[in-house]
Amino acid sequence: MEINLLSSKGEELLIFFNGWGMDLNAVKHLAFDEKLAVLEVHDYTGPAVKEVFEPYWHGYRKIHLCAWSLGVRAAA
Q1: Which run of H or E residues covers position 48?
Q2: Cβ(20)–Cβ(67) under 8 Å?
Q3: Whole-prediction pTM value?
């Protein structure tokens, strides 16, 4: 599994689980919103467990989860 923190500034965090064969280029443009931090996930060869993501989501007022295609299964 590959995790990319595209932007860490902002009060809210968007965790985006990408689809099969996709990479961070699909959501890279979202990192320009100064109110929203963006964490992109793809390449689901490893387990998606809660402990992997915990270091990323501390300090945000709100966390949004978005998943597309194969990312839906990984996010579940």
Answers
A1: none
A2: no
A3: 0.85
